[in-house]
Amino acid sequence: MELCNLFFLTLPIKPSLSNLKTRCSAHRLKLAESLQDETLKILEWPSVCNQLSAFTSTAMGFSAARDALLPIGRTPEESRRLLDQTSAAFALRLPPDFSGIEDVSEIVQSSAAGQLLSIREICAVKRTLRSARDLFQHLTKISQQSERYYPLLEIFQNCHFLTELEKKIEFCIDCKFSTILDRASEDLEIIRSERKENMESLDSLLKEVSNKIFLAGGIDRPLVTKRRSRMCVGIRASHKALLPGGVVLNVSSSGATYFMEPKEAVDLNNMEVRLLNAERAEEQVILGLLSSEIAQSESEIKYLLDRVLEADFAIARAAHARWMNGVCPVLSSGGYKNIGLSDSGSLSIDIEGIQHPLLLEASLKSLSDPTTSKTSNSVIWCEANLSSDPLPFPVPIDIKVKPETRVVVISGPNTGGKTASMKTLGLASVMLKAGMYLPARNHPTLPWFDFILADIGDHQSLEQSLSTFSGHLTRIRKMLEVTTKQSLILIDEIGSGTDPSEGVALSTSILEYLKDRVNVAVITTHYADLSLLKKKDPQYENAAMEFSLETLQPTYKILWGSTGESNALSIAKSIGFDEKIVERAQTWVKKLMPDKAEKRRGLLFQSLMEEKNRLEVQANRAAHIYSNTMNLYHEREEALKAKETQNVQREVIAVKSQLQKIVDDFEAKVRTASIDQLNALLKESESAISSIIEAHSYTEESSVTEAEKSFLTLKPGSKSSVRVNLSDIRLFRVEIQFRKKIHDQTLKSSILMFVFTLTFCGGYQLPEQNGKTKLETRKCENQEAIKMLLQCKNKAAFHLYRAFYNFYVSNGRRVNSLKNLSEATDDSKEVSYGLVLQTSKNTVDLRGMRVEEASHNLNLAISITGSNSVLFIIHGMGTGVVKESAQQILRKHPRVVKFEQESPTNYGCTVAYIK
Questions:
Q1: Closest among 796, 651, 782 to 724, alpha carbons compared
Q2: In this structure, are residues 310 and 425 in contact, taking their beta carbons and an 8 Å threshold?
Q3: pTM for this model (two decimals)
């Protein structure tokens, strides 16, 4: 019986079928996750995550990206949602503000563990809650404007922003000064009130005692201080007797001064200690209550932080896409249906002009230093990199895989880009699952892969006694164990490292196994026999890395549907191998496989020549179209120029003839006219010239501004100086440039009006002095003055004429003689300044300026103020230096008629009346 029992106890228990399936499924899933993690490292996914970390806006987003913790969709729907978030963020004009959001997860965890939080930690929680709520409100606002932003708003659905907790913290703590407010509790308010009264009594007592000690010569100056947390006074050691019953709390380093607590202050100090301890205890109670509130909200806060992190990643992905000129990928059905994905049409993988993002980094604008701390404004919204044309490096490649294709065999030379192209496809597939844009053209299309498994690199392990070949086989075996119909398999140099015949046989068997169990498998090889599989089975596809036979260098481009040679002999020759060695090797190649080698070489050369010829035809056609377009453009341009020039010349001749006639008539009438007839003669000439101006005016030219209509006073025989920049007085160029020169010609009429006016008070000359031009009047003949003014640029002469004419003609001053003309400037007729009203345009503010700066600004303001205007000078009520300097300038300035001192209703301001 005992033997039987022992027998049954030692029998192994047969596991049930369901338990066995569960255990096998768990093992397979664990193995798949392990292989997936290794593949991500092989494809350099952590480096891409590190690249994206520069675009995050929060400290927790930066840390997570640096640790390669970017979310990767576990289902096609999750990847589609991540892509929608990226697209919504990409459409934003500016990124949202993440300022104030901190990683408070450790703080919340500490509070949940029962630890007492500090004021700084509690305030960090408050700022984070407030900033997260502001971010949600901002996304809500922009989502109301357009539904395309809704995927960003969806991130914060079901979030609790803990507004009540935020209000409690704000009620109890002043986070600006990191102090607990009196209103936090009634006990704290009472304690602080009592402490304040006690401290006032203690301070008053000690000040009185210290003054008595000072008057008695016991100290150089009254001194009240704190020693050993008690208030005391300073006293010389020799005068210690002045404080009978006092307690010595401390002694100075020299021993000459004692810090003593007077007997009368002992009770008050004791009370201060008790109240201080009570205050601290009450503050600890308040902090404990707030810490408990935060601990109770642990799950809500952590969920909110996760959503903020998700939004940060979405914005970072969009910024990264802008930086690398990325485009949104399209999910194709890719060999499996009914999962809500778009059908790719004729291709399951259709990627045009994709570039490796890590290789692309060297060609784009450099990223900010990733070691710097992240702030709310650290999102790099790079629009400068946006371009429709790809950068020349790295070389863009096309990846085209038909829906029925399951295995792609890529052949070609070493260093030709086979491995880099395969890695680019794998990395693009991971980026799609993570919701990232791809650095490609048009609309890259590829399936969603559940597992992306790669065997790239050397898997040699001395510890596990694995050679390079054994390491590759071990990893491929594991990959075959977990692969599914939705998987992408990448194998580099399949079957290498062993006998070529056995390697080809094993590789062929592996590919036959894969084509029925994967979505797509991409392998690279130097075995030409693997390229022959396409002839037997349409599920295979060949591709070759292009190699230039002229330069003996790879072009890094993929030729789909072609097979490539290793070109080992060409490469050996290019790097300097002995020609005899290369020739002998070529002889062996012909002996070993003469038919295949020659045929492959012929097909490859034919394919390359056809591609070259096609590109040459397209280039010649484009050049011909461009040449014809430019010739037509230049012919039309010359015709329009000739026609416009003829029209301009005809109008200029007509204007010159009209102006000459007015000048001749004016000179004839001047010889016989009396002084009394001068005004009528001037008005008649001005009317005639005005009609010509209106007929040929150029409306697009800007009019003379009010600031330019400066006032000018001229007296016969006297010198009047006006500041004009040299750039405003240049020789008039008689070059006609379409319609613009019509305007220059017509403005000569205004110059002539000025000439006519100056005829009776003298001409002028323009000597240059220190970079400025000074206008001076002098006696001269009429023709000489006209000739001189016609050589001056119209703008300056026009301004001078308008100022002169406004003063002598528009104001009604009749000029009867040269004597009356000279006396006209002394007319003391009262000028009406209208309603004196202060505005921003007639005010100059001199407050806060030094005297030199204020004087310069005041002189400038007076010079640009229009005629018969009022200027308000604000000088303030300070020391009065600026005010005195300003009024001194007003007394002496020739344009200031008078000025009014400040009044009780207008302190600090002086009003000046300008001629």
A1: 796
A2: no
A3: 0.59
